[in-house]
Amino acid sequence: GRKVIAINVSDIAAMGGLPRYLLVSLVLPKDTEVAFVDGLYEGMQAECARWGAEIVGGNMAHSPGGVIVDIFLLGEVEPEHLLQRSGARVGDRVLVTGTLGDSAAGLALVLHPEARCADEHRRWALERHLTPTPRLWEGQAIARSCLATAMIDVSDGLVSDIGHICEMSRVGVRLWAEALPISGAALAVAEAVGARALDWALSGGEDYELLFTAPADRADELARQVREETDTPVTVVGEIVPETEGMRLIQQDGSSVPLSKGGWDHFAE
Q1: How far is it, in rounded angstroms, from Cα 137 to Cα 230?
Q2: Which of 29, 89, 128, 225 is the most buried (most CB within 10 A)?
Q3: 121/99 Cα distance (integer angstroms)
Q4: Taking the CB of residue 266, how many other CB atoms lie within 10 A of it?
């Protein structure tokens, strides 16, 4: 049979699965217009239709103030294609889809609307921050290849999320700064607001790209397969090393610096 999981869309993609059923609970003020609720459900149904999921139930309650939308998503994955965080092995290469730091660039523009950059860069960064697209088809391609050893989505930040793989797989990692895929938009926005795009790529979070590992002699083949099937670029950005070596960033001059998990902490105050 199939293994059923309850988790968010991007995490489902990172396991090689697909979203199926959505439960929606609304907590609304008494004066909420019916048109607002209808519009909200129309939007959710349109988004679900993109990925083959359905809204199958939920609940409603009164709110003394403000609107709360709670969503519970059920997905499924074939057991033989299930990818977890615990399969990385020493010698594996680390790969990532798309580009990193774009969502952080979009957030910077939201916080600094006066920042000046090309319209195309502004549109790209804001879109990546405000309306991210889960890499479902890429996750399917990676899982079907049977070449990947571990996978996670980049939601908390590259360093934090590779840290989860390292912790669960009991390994360390070297990330190569020069290899990190950073878009022209992120570079432009970083310059406009006086930030470093590399920092955003490492710990910005909310890019919802897929971060995965594969044996060194199959990594290029896997990257090519995913590009051919989905048109999404894939980049090799590092290698898995023994746990005793920890997590390090190899800089362009060849020197290395230790990495701490950083990124988003769900339980921070």
Answers
A1: 7
A2: 128
A3: 14
A4: 6
- Please check whether residue 259 is in contact with residue 247, taking contact to mean a CB–CB distance below 8 angstroms: yes
* Residue 126, CA atoms < 13 Å, CB-side half-sphere: 13
CA atoms in the 13 A half-sphere facing the CB of 146 = 3
Residue showing tokens 């869309």: 9
Rounded Cα distance between 269 and 265, Å, is: 9
Identify the burial level of 33 via C-beta atoms within 10 angstroms of its C-beta, where 0-12 means exposed, 13-18 middle and 19 or more buried.
exposed
**Other Cβ atoms within 10 Å of 89 Cβ, number:** 14
Average model confidence (pLDDT) across the chain = 91
Place of tokens 């908390």: 156
Tokens of 199: 């920092």
Mean pLDDT confidence for 235-244: 98
Whole-number CA gyration radius for the chain: 20
Q: Tell me, what's the pLDDT at 265?
A: 43
Q: How far apart are CA 35 and CA 226, in angstroms?
A: 42
Its pTM stands at 0.88
Among candidate residues 203, 217, 214, the one with its CA nearest the CA of residue 262 = 203
Distance CA 72, CA 22 (A): 6
**The two three-digit tokens of residue 134, written as one number:** 């889960």
Q: H or E segment at 71?
A: strand 68-77
3 state DSSP class of 84: coil
In this structure, what are the phi and psi dihedrals at residue 172, rounded to the nearest 5 degrees?
-115, -175
Give the strand pairing for 171-176 and 234-242: antiparallel
In 90-216, where does DSSP find H-type helix? 102-111, 119-130, 136-145, 158-169, 184-193, 197-203
